[in-house]
Each structure stands twice: as C-alpha cells, then as structure tokens.
Amino acid sequence: MTTVDPTAPAQEPLHRLRFEEPGPPRPAELPGGTPAWLVSRYADVRQVLSDPRFGRARLYAAGAPALSDVPDLVNDPDLMFNQDGPDHLRLRRTLRRAFTPRAVARWRPWIAATVEELLDRLEARRQPVDFVAEIALPLPAAVISRLMGLDDSAWDRIRHWSEHAFSDGTHESEHVAAAIEEFSAFGAGLLAERRRTPGDDLVSGIVTAADAEGGVPEAQLVSLVCGLVVGGHDSTMTMLGNALLYLLGERRDAWPRIGADEEAAGRVVDRLVHLVPLGDDRGSIRHAAADVEVGGVTIPAGSTVIADCGMANRDPEVFPPATLHDLFAPLEAPTLSFGAGPHYCLGAWLARAELQLALHRLAARLPRLRLAEPVGAVVWRTGTTSRSPRTLGVTW
C-alpha cells in the first residue's frame, strides 16, 4: 500500500508515491471497509495472479460485497478480465494472434510513421506546446482506431465514455450508468456492422473468431470491444504523460541517451512502466476459492485478496535498491505492472512499442525539450482510476 505524506500536495506525481515495505500476507480492508488479505511480496503477488484458485468471477457472485459504489466498466461481470477458466479462455481465444510480439512487430512501421506525423505537427505549433493534446492523446487513439477500424469522429464520445467507464467513484451513479449504456450500444452497433460488412480490422477478427468458437455470449463480446477501445488508448496516454513529466522534471540526464539509442529507450520504458503506476490504487483484487498457502500464511477460502503490484515491484529481494531507479538497467524480473498469469495484459507489447517509439523519436528530434512550467504547477486529470497530467506544456 502507499503511504501519504500529510505535508505533500493533494496530487503528488505518481513517480513520487511512497510505498510500504512488502511483507507476509496480512489482514487489510478494501476502501469500503470489506475485510481482505493484502499480498505484497513479488513471489506472493505472482502466485495470487497466476493460481486459478484466486479468481475474478466470484467477486461478482450473488451476495458478494460491491467493489465500487458506482457502476463502471472495470466491474462489469461480462468483461473478459472478470471471467475465469473456460469462459475466460473462450474470450481470450478470439484475440489469440492480435497482440503477440510478432503482430506488434508488423505494426511498428506505421506506428513509427504516426509518431513522425504527430511530431511534425508539434514542431509547427507555437511554443509552449501541450504534449498531451499533441502526442499523448492522439498517438494511442490513432493506433487503436486503425486496429479496430474506428472513425475519428467517434473520439469525442469515446473520451467521454472512457472518463465514466474508469470512474473513481466521484461521478454521479446515474451519469456513469447512462454513459456505459451509450458505450455498450456503440459496441453492439460496431459488432453488428462488422457482421454485415467485415473488413481486416480487429473487430471483424473478433466476430469471425467468436462465430468459429461458438457459445460466446453477445454481452461478453460487447464488453470485450468496449474494453479494447478505452483500454487501448487510456493506459498508453496515461503512461506517456507521466513518463515525460518524470523524465523532463527529474531525470533530464537520461534524455540524450533516449534520443540516441532506440534499444536503450526500450529499457527506459520497461523501468518507467515498472516504477510509475497508472493511478493511486495499484491493488488487483481476487477471490480465494479454497484455503491456499501464500508466503507461509494460509488465506482462507472465501477471502477477498488484494495483490499489490506496486509494492511487489519494489520488493528488495527481487529488485535491488541499488538498481531500482537505474533507468537503463534491464529489469531483474518481469514487471507486475501488466499483471501476470491468465489475465496478463493483452496490450502490453503494443503499449511498450508506442512508448518506446514516441519517447525515442521525441528525444531525437527535440534534444532541448523541457517543461514549460514547474512540476508542482501541473493540473491533474482526475475522476478516473488512472491519473496523469491534464495538460503538459513543453518548449525547446
């Protein structure tokens, strides 16, 4: 769990969050007061995320305590992330080859071309320029639009739906419910359109694979499509904004090497993803179907378990303090920022490619890039479970 410095600003940059020392599993509580077990050591978190006895679907069984006070996409029982076993595998197979490293390697040339086009536009703007508006938001939106065959005209609505789909509980319940209903109708319409006139996009591939698979409920396909749309741009946008804030605000020494060496930029991306969470809450929740021993402690059947990936990513037994903040050092073990086990993030390779290409080419073309305002003056995007600068002025 993070600890809060009472003297710190209300919205401290995410790279400055302080973490408790990981230790054996111990009793804790969810934000609403529901009893839970906190698991925080690297090996223990990997076990919880990989062991099929710790599932997601049972969190939404009848009578289970609500994980959120307002409806949201993350807690939709039909979402692929909230399926287990055969139901989860059936959905996952509809995307079996879409996000593999080989597939992402084929996409790199046009992702790189998109980065260059956006940088051309950024350089033509009057300084200071808003990095979020010019790069962090349009790059992942352009990539997921091309993959899914989306019309650019839909993006104003999609951004509105995203804010509510990942609500942190501050939105009114009826507004969230209405936005998710509209978003689901959009997803259902997209699936219906691709059934009528299939193309070579990802949604058409999902339709074809689901028909071949058989038995996939339509509600689960709708949630899958909506999850890909918002997840495919929100996470990468968040990581880009937070990464640049950290690099220009506190690690400017790394900027020349990021621009000179694309491979080194990839190692920096791995470290940044590892160290800078998407939001203030990094716990991944699971339900224990049986008594399970984790790290020498028996977690009873029926327990809710918080697997804290942020604490585990700083486990000194795995990630030595001496190299933890060395941006160019290869990670000593796979990061848990993308999860682990059957629910490992499908878009991990794609996100890494976008971040690597964007930061490398930005540093190569604009070696003098710097923040146009102090880090403390940044206005944060709030209201969602992810957090990043709402705007980020840069100059060169």
Q: What shape does the CA trace take?
A: globular
N-to-C span:
38 Å
Strand content: 5-15%
Parts with pLDDT < 50 across at least 5 consecutive residues: 2-9
The helix fraction, in percent, is: 40-55%
Which sheet architecture does the biggest sheet show? 5 strands, mixed
**How many beta strands in the DSSP annotation?**
14
Q: Number of DSSP helices?
A: 14
Given the helix and strand composition, which structural class is it? alpha+beta
| SSE run | EEEEHEHHEHHHHHHHHEEEEHHHEEEE
Mean pLDDT score: 91
In what order do the strands lie side by side in the largest sheet?
3-4-10-7-5
Radius of gyration: 21 Å
Key structural traits:
single chain; 396 residues; alpha+beta; five-stranded mixed beta sheet; three-stranded antiparallel beta sheet; disordered N terminus
Task: Note down, in words, how this protein is organized.
This protein has 396 residues and is α+β, with helices and mostly antiparallel strands. The chain contains 14 helices and 14 strands. It has helices at 42-50, 85-93, 101-124, 131-136, 138-148, 155-165, 173-196, 202-213, 218-250, 255-260, 262-275, 309-312, 321-324, 348-365, and strands at residues 2-3, 18-19, 26-29, 35-39, 54-55, 129-130, 283-288, 292-294, 297-299, 304-308, 370-371, 380-381, 388-389, 393-395. The strands form 5 sheets. A 5-stranded mixed sheet has the order 3-4-10-7-5. It has a 3-stranded antiparallel sheet with strand order 6-14-11. It has a two-stranded antiparallel ribbon with strand order 1-2. The model is unreliable at 2-9 (pLDDT under 50).
